[in-house]
Write a structure and sequence with these properties.
Helix content is 42%, strand content 19%. It has 13 helices and 15 strands. It has two domains: 249 residues, TIM Barrel, CATH 3.20.20.20; 88 residues, Sulfite Reductase Hemoprotein, domain 1 (2-Layer Sandwich). Bound molecules: iron/sulfur cluster.
């Protein structure tokens, strides 16, 4: 299905039409604070964020976009609520895309003014609908907040903008109810060819937000639905990007990067495996290899259980093992294991 969506250009990136699913996040600095916002965007881009969104609640924030844009290398989306003049100001200050809910922009003429500004600069509009702000009539029609209601609301807004003569659109339909969200995406994917921005809204803290996002995005993306994603977390946006990358990799939608597998620990575990696995995960983040690394808790079963990994370490009391494809290649003092693994990875493929 993803192959059949319309290709939409956002700055120098494209989504839709079977292009790779791009990762988005949103800054949580004050957009008016150019320095802090640029710093955060640069960190997010380095971590793998493809497109960044900034809230534009004031004219000062809209003006800041022009300065921010000079310092960053990824497309910038302006997030607008209620005030159509802010949307126009964001467009004039170089936003590569705007996110609006036409339902809270107000009268038709105000929406038309925003559409005209976007059309003039040929920047796409993301039409966003949230289950929380579903129109009263649709809640009544469908006897509550439902996937059908969310889809109808989104398509009504899309048709409104199409009637105004513009079709550079991306749609997002969001609900914090994971199954409702998945159902809504299944329904809308059958009814429109516009690319879909997928995410579970208000997913929660790092723990529950990650699980809800992984389940929801997993169901949706696995069906070939979705062209760009955001994992929404009550936490550091960097965690959103890390999680989004992991979800895409797990689904086979993103290549590259080291995958760390580690045993669940058991009564045979002889080292601080939890600490070690976390250290390894951080250590490999910047190493550009596409391999599997195993971190195992004992020297008896570890090598066998790590067979599917390209390289691994297994810890024992005082000594540990370096393993390749399940074979022991070196015995080392326990405190040298991590560095030995690092050196192997840095020189991978050289022998
Ligand atoms: S590798 Fe060893 S410590 Fe880890 S789960 Fe298997 S038996 Fe237990």
């Amino acid at each position: 299905m993803r192959e059949h969506t319309k290709v939409i250009k956002i700055g120098d990136r494209v989504i839709g039409g079977g292009n790779p699913v791009l990762i988005q996040s949103m800054t949580n600095t004050k957009t008016e604070d150019v320095r802090a916002t640029v710093k955060q965007i640069q960190e997010l881009a380095a971590a793998g964020c493809d497109i960044i969104r900034c809230a534009v609640p004031t004219f000062e924030a809209a003006k800041a976009l022009a300065e921010i844009k000079k310092e960053i290398s990824i497309p910038l989306v302006a997030d607008i609520h209620f005030d159509y003049r802010l949307a126009i100001a964001a467009i004039e200050n170089g936003a590569d895309k705007i996110r609006i809910n036409p339902g809270n922009i107000g009268s038709r003429s105000r929406v038309q003014a925003v559409v005209d500004a976007a059309k003039e600069r040929q920047i796409p509009i993301r039409v966003g609908v949230n289950s929380g702000s579903l129109e009263k009539e649709l809640v009544e029609k469908y006897h509550g907040v439902t996937a059908e209601g969310i889809v109808e609301s989104a398509l009504d807004k899309v048709h409104l903008i199409e009637d105004m003569g513009y079709d550079q659109l991306v749609i997002s339909i969001k609900s914090s109810d994971v199954l409702m969200c998945a159902r809504a995406h299944e329904l809308i994917a059958d009814k429109t060819d516009y690319p879909l921005h997928v995410g579970i809204t208000e997913a929660g803290t790092l723990f529950s937000g990650n699980i809800k996002s992984a389940v929801g995005l997993g169901i949706i993306l696995y069906q070939g639905i979705g062209d760009t994603i955001r994992v929404s977390l009550t936490g550091d946006p960097l965690e959103e990007v890390r999680s989004a990358k992991r979800i895409l990799k797990t689904l086979g939608l993103k290549k590259g990067g080291i995958e760390v597998v580690s045993c669940p620990t058991c009564g045979r575990t002889q080292i601080d495996l939890i600490g070690l696995a976390n250290r390894v995960e951080r250590m490999v983040e910047d190493i550009p290899l596409d391999i599997k690394v195993a971190v195992m808790g004992c020297v008896v079963n570890g090598p066998g259980e790590a067979k599917e990994a390209d390289i691994g370490i297994a810890g024992g009391v005082g000594t540990g093992l370096l393993i390749k494809k399940g074979e022991i290649v070196k015995k080392l003092p326990e405190d040298e294991l991590l560095e030995a693994l690092r050196q192997e990875l840095l020189h991978w493929g050289e022998e």
